[in-house]
Design a protein that fits this description.
heterodimer; A: Tetrahydropterin Synthase, Chain A; 4-stranded antiparallel beta sheet; B: about 325 residues; Tetrahydropterin Synthase, Chain A
Chain lengths: ~280, ~325
């Protein structure tokens, strides 16, 4: 009874060990290769529960997710002979676990290969472009090219380069200084431009103002003179109409009036004795 | 008896094992179940059950939580008032016109596909952080410094969001970029005063233009007023002239009517009256009709100019 039970337990334990050795799981995040005595048997990419020959075969699991590679910032020379400090990264994944197993074995081995490949490709490609191309419009295009070329070279290691990107592309410190100088000069120019634009606009407005004022006053003068003329004309007409009824009398009246106005205390007048006014003075002679 | 106890114990152990499969998905989470490493299902919030370890496992990423990444600075004290630490190597970047700008931004994101988020990228956070810098620098590199600082901020934000989303979709990372917001965008410390000067110049421009406009507002109404006055004066003059003419004419006609009734008498009277009015107070000389008369006058005139004023009166 007791022996039987011990026997049963041993059988159960052995069965468990065999089962454990013949079953393995591959996670969604993993892939693996089955190796038999150092020889490759098959690749397992499908996640789930899998079977292998116990003891003789073992499984080497690899990451199936996208992995990181972050290069140290490095100086590169652009086509227009400018230095640029480039900090790039790449994202990669193990595409062919067998080749990967055969060539680089593990992630750190892979990273040093990627480092070589990507950096040389990047340096080569950046040397074909000017600084302005690298920092602006064509950056994505350039990176695309670097990624493709790197990808081709990385294939032999079972590695897929998903992308290569420039995280930072900055000017070296000593160049940055001259950039600041240029920026300063540019701002000074802009400030001057604003001030003289203001001046320009102000002068225009003032000139326009003066012009408008002159025109307004001239118009007013014109109108005023017209109105005055109307008044004068009408007055002349009225006078003429009235005085024409007896021009002689008008002349007489008007002369008398004129005498009154023109002769004052400072006037010296010489009266001839035969003057009408003195007629009666003479009578006594 | 002891056998029964053992069965009980076994039963309890099995029961406990089975109970470990109960799990709660909290609101905002998604429960992703893997059986032997393979994804089988996912659940929304609530109480659920999965086969216990080692058969199934569950991950519960917070799919509705919006997380944020800071570029160019870190919040060291959320405040208020908030305090930030600048990180220059992140924040200083080249613009399209080869200027350098100091740019702070935040990126907000959430998980849009829990399975993709869990299974496709090893370190999503770090990947996203790197991609943020890539996207921001790429977009800033496509714009001029003035666009980035003022004119096209929204455009920069939107383009960065798009580039970032495209990069993250390229990794099938299951991340949705909900917003990219530029925070502080300054010129670098070294040239800030020059930029401030531009701002001042702009204000000066507005000021000087406003002054000129003020001149306009001042001068033109005054000129219009003056014009109105000129015209009013002219009108007054016209009316005056006409009225006076009418008055004069009326008076003349009235006088004329009476004059016609006794022409020579009136003429004489008017003449005498006028003489009476003008002759008093003035110097008069009555000269004889002889030939010498004219000479006398001339002499007298000469005398007059030499004679002192006091004497003149007696000569009458």
């Amino acid at each position: 009874m007791n022996k039987k039970r011990i026997g049963a337990i041993i059988v159960a334990v052995v069965a468990l060990i065999i089962l454990n050795s013949s079953l393995f799981t591959i996670d969604e995040t993993e892939q693996g290769i089955v190796i038999q005595m150092g020889r490759y048997v098959r690749t397992v990419k499908e996640p789930g529960l899998h079977v292998k020959v116990p003891f003789f075969q073992n499984v080497q699991k690899y990451e199936d997710r996208i992995l990181e590679y972050d290069a140290a910032a490095a100086r590169v020379l652009t086509k227009d002979k400018k230095h640029l400090v480039v900090d790039n990264y790449a994202r990669w994944r193990i595409k062919d676990p067998l080749k990967f197993y055969q060539t680089v074995r593990n992630v750190s081995g892979a990273i040093s290969r990627i480092d070589d490949i990507v950096f040389s490709e990047l340096r080569g490609e950046l040397a074909l472009h000017s600084l302005s191309e690298i920092i602006s419009m064509r950056r994505e295009e350039i990176m695309e090219k670097v990624a493709q070329k790197s990808e081709r070279k990385a294939q032999q290691f079972g590695i897929e380069i998903v992308d290569v990107r420039i995280k930072r592309a900055d000017l070296p410190k000593e160049v940055a200084h001259s950039v600041y100088e240029r920026m300063r000069a540019e701002r000074e120019r802009i400030a001057k431009k604003y001030r003289s634009e203001g001046e320009e606009a102000a002068v225009k407005i003032r000139a326009q103002t003066d012009k408008e004022r002159t025109v307004i006053l001239a118009e007013a003068y014109k109108k005023a003179e017209q109105i005055k003329g109307e008044g004068d004309a009408k007055a002349i007409k009225i006078y003429a109409a009235a005085f024409q009824t007896d021009p002689r009398f008008y002349e007489f009246m008007r002369s008398l009036e004129a005498y009154k106005k023109t002769i004052d205390k400072n006037t010296v007048i010489v009266l001839p004795p035969d003057m009408e006014f003195l007629k009666h003075l003479r009578m006594g002679e | 008896m002891s056998r029964r106890v053992r069965y009980y114990l076994l039963g309890i152990v099995v029961f406990i094992w089975l109970v470990t499969g109960i799990y709660i998905v909290h609101p905002g989470e998604e429960g992703v179940v893997r059986r032997f490493g393979k994804k089988v299902t996912s659940h929304g919030p609530g109480i659920h059950y999965h086969l216990p370890w080692p058969v199934e496992r569950v991950d519960r990423p917070k799919v509705e939580e919006i997380k944020r990444i800071e570029i160019g600075f870190r919040t060291i004290y959320p405040g208020p008032p908030a305090r930030y630490r600048p990180i220059l190597e992140e924040s200083l970047m080249l613009t399209g016109d080869e200027n350098i700008v100091d740019c702070w931004a935040i990126v907000q994101y959430r998980i849009k596909d829990a399975s993709a988020y869990l299974f496709n990228v090893k370190d999503v956070e770090q990947t996203l952080k790197d991609a943020c810098e890539v996207a921001l620098r790429q977009v800033v590199g496509n714009h001029t410094i003035d666009d980035v600082m003022i004119a096209a901020r929204f455009k920069v934000e939107e383009e960065t969001r798009q580039v970032l989303q495209r990069i993250m979709d390229g990794y099938e990372s299951g991340v949705l970029i909900t917003a990219v917001k530029l925070q502080e965008v300054h010129p670098p410390e070294q040239v800030r005063d020059a930029f401030d000067n531009v701002v001042r110049a702009k204000e000066d421009k507005d000021k000087i233009i406003n002054q000129a406009k003020g001149y306009y507002e001042d001068v033109i109404p005054k000129a219009r007023g003056k014009a109105e006055r000129l015209i009013a004066e002219a009108e007054a003059y016209r009316e005056q002239r006409i009225k006076r003419a009418e008055g004069d004419a009326g008076k003349f006609l009235l006088v004329l009517r009476e004059y016609r009734k006794a022409k020579s008498l009136t003429e004489k009277r008017l003449y005498l009256e006028t003489m009476e009015q003008i002759l008093p107070g003035i110097q008069k000389y009555i000269v004889g009709t002889e030939k010498s008369g004219l000479l006398n006058i001339l002499q007298m005139k000469q005398n007059l100019t030499t004679l002192p004023k006091a004497v003149k009166g007696e000569e009458k």
